[in-house]
């Protein structure tokens, strides 16, 4: 299973919208699935997605592959990472400039 | 014409001087650091008669430039022993600038300790008035209203609390916000103690009447730049109305840095806090909305700000607890002390505002008291009681009021997260190594605002480096230069998010400065001026006895792994030293 932590308005895709707790969904992952695929599977629109995606705490592109046991954190477009420049975006495709 | 106000506290005289040619273009940190370098002996005692304290608005402060209300305060720091510039929003910067005063230099010292004065500045001049006993020895939530009663509701007040009166090394300097709360702080480095050592309780700035205002040499260029910068701030996701800062405040970072595994928890033992959600910007927004009453997000700390990242946090009954619950403050008293309750962090921040303390240093100091066995992690009531020790001026309170490093020395605590005696803020340098370099080599001790160690990776300037890459030297240096320039300009550092992403915004910022001064600066001048500022500050510190051996992070961070990434700070010392050697 993949553990997905959603924040801000994306909490509505979980059963908890109360910001005082973590909003988490767990889903099974297929071999080779990318973050982009997971995002689509959850139903998050491109418009609502910001650049702030963390796979196991690493700032990541949508093209990174996920596997069972990973933690994925996704923030919406109105919760941009103020200090995004601190983090190199980890990804398999350098030209993916999503966000 | 712009002038310098010199105040001698030994002779109790005030005098206006012409601005020397070499200072003509300077503002903010640029001029405070230059005057300190030119006039203060680096080996002086920070609380002795040889130190000076310099107040200066930025280059564009007092004009219609957006988000530019900063005031810089400089001198030699009693916390770090280095040169210091600490800046604040609030009401003072713009009023000081409109009076045509480029800088106030306060020097000397009254013969009698405990003798306090108030400096009143208005369009007709300046005078020193004896401070009423009723303004001394009490909290600023009591003192500020008395001062506004005396001098009028429309003045700005730069003042110190009882921590400054008691010359504590964690005393900050308070500036009132637009609703006259004692809530905005030039907090870091103990400059409140320097002000206290001068016998100066407060500076009252009254710009009523018809003050000269800030002359703008090239109005057309200024207006062009102002428009470009404003458009950038209104367009960028972080700075725009309804954007991250405006909606959630700076504490939007709580969940983000926690998710990234760099949120220091239990005195820098973990990079994630299980209670992070409860002290997050989302939670602040939720409480301000649900409790209603005075609860407000998107509050502005000074007029003309388009970002408006402040908040007014309500008690359960909707009445006011405190302004403002910021990222650094909810972290220092929250995750770092194991406290996951905004009502508790709010009370602790309110006590800092009341006593006149820096929230970062105070929170980290409470964590040191916990390490020393004086409290447990997560015990909010005990944390509040320890803060009252500072307010009550007990011997323990004097130890805590002198900051984290002093407290660890007294109690034999080794895990002390300070650099040059100043507490490390809310980004663990083991997980975010770029900021670790900033903390290590800053001329001011550990300081997250010293140079956002940012952009090059994302802008493709320095090639392939990642979050854990150790070779971030060029990046650190360039961004420290840019930060020093912003600190000179009078703009809030938060414009950086927009101007580093939107080139026309960056050009616009420079054009507003050139418009005011009549210069022909380009973006290349940012690095040139920033480098000059830092070189001056470094020279002061070198003469004060600082060497590269002081440009180091706490030893425990080199061998103690930080979960969840399980990383240590492994940037080699030689890499840290390269940052400055490349400069000279």
Key features of this structure:
heterodimer; A: 99 residues; mainly beta; Ubiquitin-like (UB roll); 5-stranded mixed sheet; 1 helix; 5 strands; globular; B: alpha+beta; Aldehyde Ferredoxin Oxidoreductase,  A, domain 1; Aldehyde Ferredoxin Oxidoreductase Protein, subunit A, domain 2; Aldehyde Ferredoxin Oxidoreductase Protein, subunit A, domain 3; 3 domains; 6-stranded mixed sheet; 17 strands
Structure notes:
- The complex is a heterodimer of chains A (99) and B (584).
- Chain A is mainly β and 99 residues long.
- Chain A has a single domain, classed as Beta-grasp domain (Ubiquitin-like (UB roll)).
- Chain A is 8% helix and 25% strand.
- Chain A has one helix at residues 35-42, and strands at 2-6, 23-27, 49-55, 58-59, 71-76.
- Residues 93-99 of chain A have low confidence and may be disordered.
- Chain B is 39% helix and 14% strand.
- Chain B has 23 helices and 17 strands.
- Chain B has helices spanning 28-39, 92-98, 140-151, 162-165, 191-197, 219-235, 244-248, 253-259, 281-291, 327-333, 342-355, 359-371, 380-392, 395-400, 404-411, 433-441, 456-459, 473-489, 496-501, 503-517, 524-543, 556-559, 573-581; strands at residues 3-8, 13-18, 53-57, 71-76, 83-88, 101-107, 117-122, 125-130, 156-159, 173-176, 182-186, 200-205, 296-299, 310-314, 320-322, 418-419, 422-423.
- Residues 454-468 of chain B have low confidence and may be disordered.
- Classes of the chains: A mainly beta (99), B alpha+beta (584).
- The A-B interface holds A 5, 7-8, 18-22, 50, 52, 54, 56-59, 73, 75, 77-90 and B 237-238, 242-245, 247-248, 250, 252-253, 255-257, 259-261, 271, 277-278, 280, 282-283, 285-286, 427, 431-432, 434-435, 452-459, 464-467, 469, 497, 500, 564-565.
């Amino acid at each position: 299973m993949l553990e997905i932590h959603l924040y801000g308005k994306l909490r509505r895709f979980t059963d908890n919208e109360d910001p005082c707790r973590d909003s988490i969904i767990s889903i099974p992952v297929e071999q080779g699935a990318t973050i982009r695929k997971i995002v689509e599977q959850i139903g998050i629109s491109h418009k609502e997605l910001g650049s702030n995606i963390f796979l196991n705490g690493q700032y990541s592109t949508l093209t990174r592959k996920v596997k069972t046991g990973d933690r994925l954190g996704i923030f919406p477009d109105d919760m941009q990472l103020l200090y995004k420049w601190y983090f190199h975006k980890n990804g398999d495709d350098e030209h993916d400039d999503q966000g | 014409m712009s002038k310098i106000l010199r105040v001698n506290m030994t002779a109790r005289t005030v005098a206006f001087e012409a601005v020397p040619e070499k200072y003509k273009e300077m503002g903010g940190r640029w001029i405070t650091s230059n005057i300190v370098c030119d006039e203060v002996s680096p080996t002086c005692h920070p609380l002795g008669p040889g130190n000076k304290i310099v107040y200066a608005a930025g280059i564009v402060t007092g004009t219609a430039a957006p988000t530019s209300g900063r005031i810089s305060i400089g001198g030699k720091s009693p916390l770090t022993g280095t040169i210091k510039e600490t800046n604040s929003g609030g009401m003072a910067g713009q009023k000081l600038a409109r009076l045509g005063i480029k800088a106030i230099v306060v020097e000397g010292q009254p013969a009698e300790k405990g003798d306090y004065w108030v400096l009143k500045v208005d369009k007709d001049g300046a005078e020193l008035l004896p401070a009423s006993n009723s303004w001394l020895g009490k909290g600023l939530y009591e003192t500020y209203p008395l001062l506004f009663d005396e001098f009028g509701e429309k003045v700005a007040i730069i003042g110190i609390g009882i921590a400054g009166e008691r010359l504590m090394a964690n005393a900050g300097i308070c500036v009132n916000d637009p609703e006259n709360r004692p809530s905005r702080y030039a907090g870091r480095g103990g400059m409140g103690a320097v002000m206290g050592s001068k016998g100066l309780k407060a500076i009252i700035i009254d710009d009523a009447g018809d003050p000269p205002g800030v002359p703008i040499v090239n109005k057309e260029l200024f207006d062009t730049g102002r428009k470009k910068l404003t458009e950038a701030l209104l367009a960028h996701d972080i700075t725009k109305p309804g954007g991250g800062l405006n909606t959630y405040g700076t504490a939007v970072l709580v969940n983000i840095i926690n998710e990234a595994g760099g949120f220091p928890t239990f005195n820098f033992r973990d990079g994630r806090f299980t209670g992070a959600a409860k002290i997050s910007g989302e939670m602040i927004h939720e409480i301000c909305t649900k409790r209603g009453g005075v609860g407000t997000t998107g509050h502005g700390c000074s007029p003309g700000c388009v970002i408006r990242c402040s908040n007014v946090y309500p008690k359960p009954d909707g009445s006011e607890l405190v302004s403002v619950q910021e990222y650094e403050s909810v972290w220092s008293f929250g995750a770092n002390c194991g406290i996951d309750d905004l009502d508790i962090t709010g009370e602790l921040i309110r006590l800092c505002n009341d006593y006149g303390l820096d929230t970062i240093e105070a929170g980290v100091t409470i964590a040191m008291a916990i390490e020393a066995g004086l409290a447990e992690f997560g015990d909010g009531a005990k944390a509040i009681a320890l803060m009252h020790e500072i307010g009550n001026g007990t011997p323990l309170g004097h130890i805590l009021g002198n900051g984290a490093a002093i407290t660890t020395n007294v109690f034999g605590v080794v895990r002390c997260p300070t650099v040059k005696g100043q507490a490390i803020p809310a980004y663990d340098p083991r997980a975010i190594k770029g900021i670790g370099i900033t903390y290590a080599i800053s001329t001011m001790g550990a300081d997250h605002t010293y140079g956002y160690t940012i952009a090059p990776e994302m802008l493709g300037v320095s090639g392939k480096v990642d979050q854990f890459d150790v070779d971030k030297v060029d990046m650190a240096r360039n961004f420290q230069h840019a930060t020093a320039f912003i600190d000179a300009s009078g703009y809030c550092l938060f414009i950086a998010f927009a101007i580093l992403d939107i080139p026309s915004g960056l050009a616009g910022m420079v054009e507003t400065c050139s418009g005011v001064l009549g210069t022909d600066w380009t973006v290349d001048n940012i690095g040139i001026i920033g480098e000059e500022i830092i070189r001056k500050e470094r020279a002061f510190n070198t003469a004060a006895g600082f060497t590269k051996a002081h440009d180091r992070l706490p030893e425990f961070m080199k061998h103690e792994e930080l979960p969840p990434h399980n990383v240590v700070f492994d940037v080699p010392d030689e890499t840290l030293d390269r940052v400055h050697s490349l400069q000279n």
